[in-house]
């Protein structure tokens, strides 16, 4: 295959390939077994049984009861449902605790709650350290009697940094505060057992774990007060109106089964490839630094800043070699500032614009890692030759002086 | 992904004139690392005031690199007096256009060129002397005003696309709205008096009607998802067609008479009547 046609996909935190096994599982339910699972006839009932099977498979991956799962259209819908439900079931509480590095699905929702609910809400956005981790003391201080819900992601989409959800959920539980976690990036990549982790709500999204786009789940722990977001028919026991996205639900069930089977591989072979890529790039490219904690992190994600170059330029050069990655630079997002995650971590401007994220999956190969290691150092060197700051920095340089240098 | 033209891609992947002219006598540096893009332009100008060499170094995205490369290609061999006339629109045009969110890359090119020419002449640029409106990106009111006038900007969002002002913390957006209002007010007032002679030929009418539509009426309708096309001018009857959401709007007749006709009477000829025609 020539370099032009080749695709080396390392953007799995953006979306993933639908696993061929998943597609096969879904296929009969488009044109042949297309019944409505709510119907009385056995044609629909057959589909209903398959949906129930999918629910069990998903529950098994999460350590949840099947009836604790509500199917939604995406991670964003799950997030909105959880937060708005918590506010409606506890109208006397007007405070939310979240972080500065949440996905826009939670961050923007919290920032715009007033227009949705007509009430003023106090939102505490916890800061993060320069390695992207949270200070649990600050978290504890933020919890008050007025706190309705805590909404904190399990793993950060840009850096892969993991937050200590089991501990934080327990701390909220002790104070009688509802806890939601956006686990869109974590589910399928690290083991999760909700039988032991006392979260009340958990969001997941199918397309991040090799199921199709357009299907999500909200886990609601049994006994947690709940108000639906989409109001309509009796589907999901009245907890989410709208005819079930049957094929995608079936696909997600299969994807969760596969994720369980591949969990070990994700945390060994994929992690080893990620480490090889990361260490190779940091060694081959001077003035590159890792964004995020080195170990408290998803096994598949690596976010590296290349100083004095801009992310979009890096991505478009990688694109010539068919390499797919993403960046937290301003230009790639359409905004004019680097990503809110990079800014919250205090990544210096010299580096924030050049942050590049590689996110792997079990479909990647060692040969692909070598391919990136072969091409990226040259790309960075060329862009630096063109950068007006590079020669200047090289003259005076001893370190970037920001205290954030790699170990 | 951005929709870049082939020419932008070509200049990004194979930039011309990268580097610094060794014996440069005009140097312009704009932008910063914090802003996310920066350009250092070096020129060699000979005794006849002709730019004999131009090179650049750029930190930034694909369109920033392409705009810089385009700029050096455009000015090489050009007389200074001609180079001074290059606008950001010229740079964007040379590249076959830029996405609107990326127009500030072409503005950066023009600013670097101005700075380099000023450096050659040993003069100070007036733009830097204005009041800083946007602190995130260090943009002055003079720069904002100039962009509004030159590129006929209609909204704060457009100002941000062209100058980056307002694209950071957003605190200056109210001030940008004020500046926009001031400039457009001045433009309308400057435009109205001499645009209303007693008699006009049909061609003159069409020209002024088109201008008024473009300057004020169309942008206002577009805000609500509508649009307007001039179909014909027959004597003093202006035939137009409403488009977009205006076409199906219950109030379209009111819009036509109370707004479009009124404005055209004020700005073109007070005997005009506006009617809707079917295109």
Description:
The complex is a heterodimer of chains A (407) and B (279). In chain A, the strands form 3 sheets. In chain A, strands 2-8-7-6-5-3-4 form a 7-stranded mixed β-sheet, with helices on both faces. In chain A, strands 9-10-13-12 form a 4-stranded antiparallel β-sheet, with helices on one face. Chain A has a two-stranded parallel sheet with strand order 1-11. Chain A has 16 helices and 13 strands. Chain A is of the alpha/beta class and 407 residues long. Chain A has 2 domains: 8-15 and 262-396, Aspartate Aminotransferase, domain 1 (Alpha-Beta Complex); 20-259, 3-Layer(aba) Sandwich (Aspartate Aminotransferase, domain 2), CATH 3.40.640. With 279 residues, chain B is an alpha+beta fold. Chain B folds into 3 domains: 6-123, Alpha-Beta Complex (Sufe protein. Chain: A), CATH 3.90.1010.10; 127-191, Orthogonal Bundle (Arc Repressor Mutant, subunit A), CATH 1.10.10.1100; 197-276, 2-Layer Sandwich (GMP Synthetase, Chain A, domain 3). Helices cover 46% and strands 18% of the residues of chain B. Chain B has 10 helices and 8 strands. Chain B has helices at residues 6-13, 62-75, 80-83, 88-94, 103-121, 141-151, 156-163, 173-191, 202-223, 252-267; strands at residues 26-32, 37-45, 51-59, 132-134, 139-140, 226-234, 237-244, 273-276. In chain B, the strands form 3 sheets. In chain B, strands 1-2-3 form a 3-stranded antiparallel β-sheet. Chain B has a 3-stranded mixed β-sheet with strand order 6-7-8, covered by helices on one side. Chain B has a two-stranded antiparallel ribbon with strand order 4-5. In chain B, helix 1 packs across helix 2 and helix 5 (103-121) crosses helix 7 (156-163). Classes of the chains: A alpha/beta (407), B alpha+beta (279). The interface between A and B is medium-sized, with 26 and 31 residues.
């Amino acid at each position: 295959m020539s370099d032009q046609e080749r695709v080396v996909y390392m953007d799995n935190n953006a979306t993933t390939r639908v696993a061929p096994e998943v597609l096969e599982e879904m296929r009969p339910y488009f044109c042949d077994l297309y019944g409505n699972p709510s119907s009385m006839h056995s044609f629909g009932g057959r589909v209903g049984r398959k949906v129930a099977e999918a629910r069990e498979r998903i529950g098994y991956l999460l350590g949840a009861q099947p009836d604790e799962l509500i199917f939604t259209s995406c991670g964003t819908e799950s997030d909105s449902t959880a937060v708005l439900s918590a506010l409606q079931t506890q109208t006397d509480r007007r405070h939310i605790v979240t972080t500065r590095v949440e996905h826009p699905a939670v961050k923007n929702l919290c920032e715009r709650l007033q227009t949705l609910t007509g009430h003023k809400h106090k939102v505490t956005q916890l800061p993060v350290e320069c390695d992207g981790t949270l200070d649990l003391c600050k978290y504890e201080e933020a919890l008050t009697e007025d706190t309705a819900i805590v909404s904190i992601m399990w793993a950060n989409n840009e850096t892969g940094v993991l937050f200590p959800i089991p501990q934080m959920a327990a701390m909220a539980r002790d104070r009688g505060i509802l806890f939601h976690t956006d686990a869109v990036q974590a589910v399928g990549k690290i083991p999760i057992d909700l039988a032991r982790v006392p979260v009340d709500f958990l969001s997941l999204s199918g397309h991040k774990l090799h199921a199709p786009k357009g299907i999500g789940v909200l886990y609601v722990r049994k006994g947690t007060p709940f108000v639906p977001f989409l109001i309509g028919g009796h589907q999901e026991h009245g907890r989410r109106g709208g005819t079930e996205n049957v094929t995608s639900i079936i696909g997600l069930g299969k994807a969760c089964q596969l994720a369980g089977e591949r969990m070990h591989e994700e945390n060994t072979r994929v992690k080893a490839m990620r480490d090889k890529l990361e260490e190779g790039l940091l060694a081959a490219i001077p003035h590159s630094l890792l964004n995020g904690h080195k170990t408290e992190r998803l096994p598949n994600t690596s976010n590296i800043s290349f100083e004095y170059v801009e992310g979009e330029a890096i991505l478009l050069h990688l694109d010539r070699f068919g390499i797919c990655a993403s960046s937290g630079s301003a230009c790639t997002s359409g905004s004019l500032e680097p990503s809110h995650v990079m800014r919250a971590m205090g990544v210096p401007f010299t580096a924030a614009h050049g942050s590049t994220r590689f996110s792997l999956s079990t479909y990647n190969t060692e040969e692909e890692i070598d391919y990136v290691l072969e091409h990226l150092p040259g790309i960075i060197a060329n862009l630096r030759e063109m950068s007006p700051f590079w020669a200047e920095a090289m003259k005076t340089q001893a370190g970037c002086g920001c205290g954030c240098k790699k170990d | 992904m951005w929709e870049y033209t082939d020419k932008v891609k070509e200049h990004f992947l194979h930039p011309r004139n990268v580097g610094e002219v060794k014996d440069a006598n005009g140097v312009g540096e704009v932008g910063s690392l914090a802003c996310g893009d920066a350009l250092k332009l070096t020129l060699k100008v000979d005794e006849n005031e002709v730019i004999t060499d131009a090179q650049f170094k750029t930190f930034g995205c694909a369109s920033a690199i392409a705009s810089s490369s385009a700029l050096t290609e455009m000015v090489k061999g050009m007389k200074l007096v001609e180079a001074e006339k290059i606008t950001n629109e010229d740079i964007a045009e040379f590249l076959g256009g830029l996405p609107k969110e990326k127009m500030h890359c072409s503005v950066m090119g023009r600013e670097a060129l101005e700075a380099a020419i000023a450096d050659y002449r040993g003069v100070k640029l007036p733009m830097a002397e204005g009041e800083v409106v946007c602190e995130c990106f260090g943009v002055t009111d003079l720069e904002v005003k100039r962009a509004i006038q030159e590129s006929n900007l209609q909204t704060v969002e457009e100002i941000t696309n062209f100058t980056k002002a307002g694209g950071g913390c957003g605190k200056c957006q109210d001030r940008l709205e004020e500046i926009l209002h001031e400039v457009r007010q001045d433009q309308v007032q400057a435009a109205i008096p001499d645009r209303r002679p007693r008699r006009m030929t049909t061609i003159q009418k069409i020209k002024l009607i088109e201008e008024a539509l473009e300057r004020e009426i169309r942008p206002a309708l577009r805000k609500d998802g509508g649009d307007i096309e001039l179909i014909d001018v027959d004597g003093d009857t202006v035939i137009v067609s409403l488009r977009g959401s205006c076409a199906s709007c219950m109030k379209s007749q009111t819009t036509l008479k109370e707004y479009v006709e009124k404005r055209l009477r004020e700005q073109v000829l007070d005997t005009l009547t506006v009617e809707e025609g079917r295109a």
